[in-house]
TrEMBL record:
Residues 1-20 are annotated as: Disordered. Gene3D superfamilies: alpha/beta hydrolase. GO terms for molecular function: serine-type peptidase activity. This is Alpha/beta hydrolase. Coiled coil: none annotated. Residues 25-138 form the Xaa-Pro dipeptidyl-peptidase-like domain. It comes from Gluconacetobacter takamatsuzukensis. Residues 150-204 form the Peptidase S9 prolyl oligopeptidase catalytic domain. InterPro entries: AB_hydrolase_fold, Peptidase_S9_cat, Xaa-Pro-like_dom. One of its GO terms (biological process) is proteolysis. Keywords: Hydrolase. Residues 11-20 have a biased composition (Basic and acidic residues).
Length: 221
């Protein structure tokens, strides 16, 4: 997985990028947890999601937001981090001008950044949110949410209690044309220490189902 450095809004950003051997492969961008709490692109769940997309034939990138690892700049309370994610997406789209779809996957704080990006980039076709911090941030900006996705919660999460995520899921599911695939992992806390494989399996199951459905719809046209 080659290391890449690309221009961000506050200096150069460091990433790891896998380029698919498939022509016009879909893209996936993976976002890490909170930088002030040790979140980096090498986080176990971030890495597990990255490898899942790679396995499914995607061109995929994970990267360090500003001030993390070798990325320049400093933490900006979430605002600058959304701009960093947009810059990462711009870089991937420049390298892959004819990509067949675009997915965004985030864990914890990365899920918040990913959902903010979803609202700004209409070309995003699907999303994965693992333990979105629904009790720490207002997700009211998801109105209307442009498309459905996969949300994962741990029933033993002490930082983001499962009922807070369920409330967000219920709210999204009332929106027209939006269906959230909600999965609760028994025994998982916020770090999902023993559940990385489960997260990877859920992601692969959800993404392959949605993409197969899309292919069927195209064939029916």
């Amino acid at each position: 997985m080659p290391e890449v450095m690309f221009a961000g809004p506050d200096g150069r950003l460091e990433g790891r990028y896998h380029h698919s051997s498939e022509p016009n492969a879909p893209l996936a961008l993976v976002l890490h947890p909170h930088p002030l709490h040790g979140g980096t692109m090498n986080n176990r769940i971030t890495y597990a999601m990255y490898r899942s997309f790679e396995k499914m034939g995607f061109s995929v990138m994970r990267y360090n937001s500003r001030g993390v690892g070798r990325s320049q700049g400093r933490y900006d309370g979430g605002i600058g981090e959304i701009s960093d994610a947009a810059a990462a997406l711009d870089w991937m789209q420049m390298v892959n001008p004819n990509a067949g779809g675009l997915w965004i996957a985030g864990y914890s704080f990365g899920a918040f950044v990913g959902m903010q990006l979803l609202m700004r980039r209409p070309e995003i076709t699907g999303w994965i949110s693992v333990a979105p911090p629904a009790n720490h941030y207002d997700f009211g900006f998801l109105a209307p949410c442009p498309c459905g996705g996969l949300m994962i919660a741990g029933d033993s999460d002490e930082l983001v209690p499962e009922p807070a995520i369920r409330k967000l899921v219920d709210k999204l599911n009332t929106q027209k044309g939006v269906s959230v695939d909600y999965r609760i992992f028994a025994g998982a806390d916020h770090v999902f220490a023993n559940h990385a494989d489960q997260v990877a399996e859920a992601l692969e199951d959800h993404v392959s189902t949605i993409m197969a459905r899309g292919a069927l719809a195209l064939a029916a046209d």
